[in-house]
Amino acid sequence: ESKSAGRARLCFFCPEMRHQIIAATRMEQALRHALSRQQLSVHLQPQFMLPATGAPYLVAAEALLRWNDPTLGNVSPATFIPIAEESGLIVELGHWVLEQVCMALADMTVKGRTLPMAVNVSQVQFRNADFVPRVASLLKRHIFSSDLLRIELTESLASEDEDDVLDKIDQLAALGLSFSIDDFGIGYSNLARLRRMPLSELKIDRSFINDLVSESDVVDARVHSVPGKVVVSHGNEIVRAMLVMAQALSLEVVAEGVEEEYQLEVLRQLGCQRVQGFLLGRPQPMEKLIQAFEARELA
Ligand code: C2E
Ligand code: MG
Ligand code: MG
Ligand code: MG
């Protein structure tokens, strides 16, 4: 007992960390094989336009990677994406997702009814020297209007003060792609820099949508606020400010993670035009969403 405790103290990694590292290594190996063994798939989550009055309607979809391992089961991207990033495997995984989306867009183009699609691109993949030429070659091989393809980048990448990042975004924008900042509001945005990038869209992180309160609760908060005490501004005001800022930057806005009816109504009142979330549509297998779209069951 005491002997092993002593050893543990001398060990650089505590046993718990060791287990985590072993698990991560195993997962990395499994992930490496997943591509060739067809354990990966792309899901699509619908994105909706939210008119001032009337029902939301489908306008786009976001591609989300799914991994089903025979022993690990369904592994969440929140778990395997960081591992793929650390090992560099994300470059191939991300390319595979892009290719699946390009193939789907080309296929839909032939059939005559297309839907804009967004793909998440990791910093690691984006920074890879071959990223732009590989995207260019996908666009050559798969024929569709390139403005149907949108790249979602994270705020941290968009804030890095590097000309290389800006150059790549410009080159891809010249090819017709558009750009979106994902999970907006939780990182540290360099607004001056955002303004210089050819962005189309900000996606408000779902934590802000989670903080929205219904109009009746807003009134309650005013009535019950203590005079002389600073009232912490609630989520509605933060989202309102984000919408004003996005408008100043001429950017479209998507609210992520809309789960509740009241959130949808608050967003509608605030004038947020696009929404995505479990309330209106969960991510589903790519073919399934495309079939429903083609059968005009959606929008
Ligand atoms: P993200 O790009 O912000 O994607 C949105 C995530 O929120 C998705 O999780 C989606 O399933 C989930 N979501 C959508 N609506 C709701 C809602 O109403 N409530 C809640 N609680 N969640 C909602 P998912 O698919 O697990 O992906 C997690 C993250 O993993 C993504 O966040 C993205 O950063 C990353 N990811 C997924 N696929 C890829 C990929 O192909 N490449 C890269 N680089 N990253 C990916
Ligand atoms: Mg995203
Ligand atoms: Mg997001
Ligand atoms: Mg995210």
From TrEMBL:
Residue intervals of the EAL domain: 24-297
Segments forming a coiled coil: none
UniProt name for this protein: EAL domain-containing protein
